[in-house]
Design goal:
This protein is globular. It is an alpha/beta fold. Helix 2 links the parallel strand 2 (about 30-40) and strand 3 (about 65-70). The chain has helices spanning about 15-30, 45-60, 70-85, 95-110, 155-160, 170-180, 200-205, and strands at about 5-10, 30-40, 65-70, 115-120, 125-130, 130-135, 160, 215, 220-225, 250-255, 260-265, 275-285, 290-295, 305-310, 315-325, 335, 340-350. It has three domains: about 5-195, HUPs (Rossmann fold); about 210-270, SH3 type barrels (Roll); about 275-350, Translation factors (Elongation Factor Tu (Ef-tu), domain 3, Beta Barrel), CATH 2.40.30.
Amino acid sequence: MAKKSKKVFVGMSGGVDSSVAAFLLLKEGYDVTGIHIRGYNVDGCAESDALMARRAAEHLNIPFYVWNMEREYKESVVGYMIDGYKKGITPNPDVMCNKEIKFGLFLNKALKFGADYIATGHYALLKKDKSGYCLSKAKDSSKDQTYFLWTLGQNELSKSLFPLGNLLKSEVRTIAKKAGLPNAGKKDSQGVCFLGKLSMPDFLSKYISGTPGPIMTANGEVLGEHKGLCFYTLGQRHLGIKGLGNKEALYVAKKDKKNNTLIVAPEKDSLLFTKKIFLKDINLVKDMEKESDIFVRVRYRQPLMKGKLKIKGSNQAEIIFNKPCKFVAPGQSAVFYLPEGDMLGGGVIM
């Protein structure tokens, strides 16, 4: 089937990346339709984002629709995040948004409306070989977003396109300007998308009541008071307290729920490192051996760490790092790769 007869629904957020994705697919000859997903937003920029997406679609002369998924987004992304923090873990709403909304509801609805594929502005490379599809790290390593896409399986990957995988962000900006896109100079969003400029603690405080308690070092020196353990994550640095005698930066090393105490330590303290982690809800993009040497990332943009993956049953695994890994937070994602950059899958840190 010729590309011009292949229908692609592009998720257009209003940002430059997804608009360029639509432009590139149109240039390749696909039948492109722009879709803006109305999710949940707390700072009132939802209307401006939708308007910008519409303006970009009009400039490209493609059909454009707004699909309201606010209720589903609140349930599967916002609700998931709040529940995670209530349990004292650090959930990853971006991973859940991709799983449940973009490559869940959006994909399924697009296919029902006659699309052959969906496309997004994610920086990721899609590969296919005899064993199936997989994602690989993007050309722009500083923008690579495969970390947030580890839940996708063969079904989702076979119906998805990622036009920006072989481009640098600077090249995307240049393409947008040459194409005359109205959002060519729009700044990238930062942090959790639906929070806007609102801080995570301020948002969570509307749903969770934290019990204040002491912030102390491992040897018992009290340095201040926390607002509630649920508002902090392991490895967090900005705590509103000063360091020890030499004023060194301090990080959250442990949350002592029994004593409602936040334990902090300097960056090189052994409390901040771990040699082994356990994962649940694992997803393997391709079949793997029960034990495999891998590279793993436990936080977005954190350097890849060498380790051994041991699969335990159908949905759990263990990772043993070659060298102790810093800032490992339960609830976050551990995503594993081959040396050449192919993403093998991931799981949720227990």
